[in-house]
Specification:
heterodimer, A: 308 residues, mainly alpha, MetI-like fold, 14 helices, 0% strand, flat, B: 313 residues
């Protein structure tokens, strides 16, 4: 019952996001055919407008758009005339998603390790080392790290390809550049939360009954401390797999990250709407899964008064 | 057991002569106690001092040299750091010392407001949402509405909102701050909600509830203080994120406009020349960002320990 109800709420949320985006988009001045209007005859431009329903009043445009959206048709792109928005997403999404998933995995695995080690060796050498790594990771953004990585690993040492996409080797540097900041944040969340958990009485009990420290950390420590990390990786997962503008640009990766930015500057209305709806669908579904996962991590958690 | 105790076994004692535990020191308020505890933590004091020094130079730094942050001198372009130009000059011959500290004003202001919004809106929305979830029909509805607002704000393209604001207002620091404020708090809200969902099942919350403590007091006095560690960690992440978001907007031509500088735009401008050996162009802004982060992190850790009595053992 909760899941059914939640499903309809999800549809409603996506509809609100799409409608608000539509309104804001139409409110902003600008014209996708601004550059064409100077060189082409008026009739041609009029025809082009008609092709994208831009000759209709705005409320009609909205109704037409929502009607197509229900049929999963995101419409044709204005900027790249021969492609539909569905084409753009289905051809670019695999690269973006691969890169995003790899970065997320690295960030979670090494972030958790670093955070747990720092907490277990609180105020000792290993704690300081981990936190220095974390601070550097947070302070150096990907747009600075990426050129440095290319300069050393590709140009100077020739170990990895400079840019482009295709093999696993191509994905190593962008994955590292993308993973660094989230890795550092995961490490800091885990450290802070582990420090609190390891002070609790049930950890002392586990210790007193003779459990090995490895088992205490694994069974009692991590499970109770991991919730903030889970909350954090929900939105992170969504933004990573839908592509990143900067990294995809620097490494010339054919993902969908650039369409989120370029479409807005080109006033490519169908692409703006398409990328937004696509992003929202993944977003609301992921946040739903995160909510469900809370109950598995800590069964005491109740999301609604009916006990779901 | 079972045996009756004879009252003659007991005798009364003069209570005035008994030495009870006496209070040796005057009692401290929470904030005074926190302050004393921070001052004892050397790293935290170092962090606080560093932050104060950076703010101090942000205020007086640009006026300490005779070059303004926007003054160009093409004959003195791309100079390495020297006694004349402490941080060197950039490709237009502008003094990097002056630009770095002028950039500190922009970047620190943006970071400060991003943190403030996170702290005020994000923490409260997260706290209320997490506490109300599972508290009857009304409670469920409050949590549902707040979390759907979070999703909607997260889903609407951020750049579109920024451009909308640029249409309504002048481009500049204030516009960037407002743009960051609209959506900046949603991450904090989700994380605090998760924490509160877990914390509110603890016995002390049930005890407070049974004693008739109000919802507001349970949220603000019992639940949110227990999330302080997570709040501080998230803030240390929000501030650089905001500083870099400004850099990204400037890169797209929507941020701080030239000749104004920010640490983010300076680092961004330096990327093209880093390979030609002009290390100072990237080093100083990047170093300042890292130093601010370091200072804030160690101060935050000290604050966390000071506010959490359990962590002091």
């Amino acid at each position: 019952m909760y899941i059914v109800k939640r499903f309809f709420t999800m549809l409603l949320t996506i509809w609100v996001i799409a409608s608000l985006t539509f309104v804001i988009m139409k409110f902003i001045p600008g014209d996708p055919f601004a550059s064409d209007a100077d060189v082409l005859p008026e009739e041609v431009v009029e025809n082009m407008r008609a092709k994208y329903n831009l000759d209709e009043p705005i409320p009609i445009q909205y109704v037409l758009y929502i009607k197509n959206l229900v049929m999963f048709d995101l419409g044709p792109s204005i900027e790249s005339e021969t492609r539909t928005v569905n084409d753009i997403i289905s051809s670019g999404f695999p690269a973006s998603a691969t890169l995003g998933l790899q970065s997320l995995l690295i960030a979670i695995i090494f972030g958790l390790l670093l955070g747990i080690i720092a907490a277990l060796y609180h105020n000792r050498f290993l704690d300081y080392v981990s936190m220095v790594i974390a601070i550097v990771g947070i302070s150096v953004p990907s747009f600075i790290l990426a050129p440095l990585l290319i300069n050393y690993f590709s140009v100077k040492w020739g170990m990895l390809p400079v840019a482009s996409w295709g093999s696993f080797q191509h994905s190593i540097l962008p994955t590292l550049a993308l993973a660094t900041t989230p890795l550092a944040v995961v490490a800091r969340f885990m450290r802070s939360s582990m420090l609190e958990v390891m002070n609790q009485n049930y950890i002392k009990t586990a210790d007193a009954k003779g459990l090995s420290s490895f088992k205490i950390v694994l069974k009692h420590g991590i499970r109770n401390a991991i919730l903030p990390v889970v909350s954090f990786i929900g939105p992170l997962f969504v933004s990573l797999i839908t592509g990143t503008f900067v990294i995809e640009k620097i490494f010339a990766i054919p993902g969908i990250g650039k369409y989120f930015v370029d479409s807005i500057f080109n006033r490519d209305y169908p692409v703006i709407m398409g990328t937004t709806v696509f992003f929202s669908v993944i977003l609301v579904f992921t946040l739903f899964l995160i909510d469900i996962s809370y109950r598995f991590i800590d069964p005491r958690i109740k999301l609604t008064s009916k006990g779901d | 057991m079972g045996k009756q105790l004879d009252s003659s076994l007991f005798r009364s004692v003069d209570t005035a002569k008994i030495q009870t535990d006496s209070i040796q020191r005057p009692s401290l308020s929470v904030w005074k106690d926190t302050l004393l505890s921070i001052l004892k933590n050397k790293l935290a004091v170092l962090g606080l001092l560093l932050l104060l020094i950076i703010i101090f130079f942000g205020i007086v730094g640009p006026s300490m040299v005779s070059y303004s942050a926007s003054e160009q001198d093409l004959t003195g372009a791309n100079l390495a750091p020297s006694s004349e130009h402490l941080f060197g000059t950039d490709d237009l011959g502008r003094d990097m010392w002056s630009r770095t500290w002028q950039g500190a004003r922009v970047s620190l202001t943006i970071g400060f407001f991003a943190a403030l919004i996170d702290l005020v809106i994000g923490v409260i929305v997260g706290g209320v949402s997490g506490y109300m979830a599972g508290r009857g029909k009304v409670g469920d509805r409050i949590d549902n509405i707040l979390m759907r607002i979070v999703e909607i704000l997260y889903g609407i393209p951020y750049l579109l909102v920024v451009i909308l604001l640029m249409v309504i207002m002048e481009p500049g620091v204030l516009t960037i701050i407002i743009a960051l404020s609209v959506t900046g708090w949603v991450g904090m809200a989700r994380i605090i909600r998760g924490q509160v969902l877990q914390l509110k099942e603890q016995e002390y919350v049930m005890a407070a509830e049974k004693l008739g403590t109000s919802h507001a007091k349970i949220i603000f006095r019992h639940l949110l203080p227990n999330t302080i560690g997570i709040i501080i960690v998230n803030l240390t992440f929000t501030i650089p994120t905001a500083i870099f978001a400004e850099a990204f907007l400037s890169f797209l031509g929507l941020g701080v406009q030239a000749p104004f500088a920010s640490w983010g735009t300076m680092a961004n401008d330096a990327l093209g020349v880093i390979l030609s050996g002009q290390w100072w162009r990237l080093f100083f802004p990047a170093f300042m960002i890292s130093l601010t982060m370091f200072a804030f992190n160690v101060f935050g850790d000290g604050l966390q320990d000071a506010l959490d009595p359990q962590a002091r053992n």
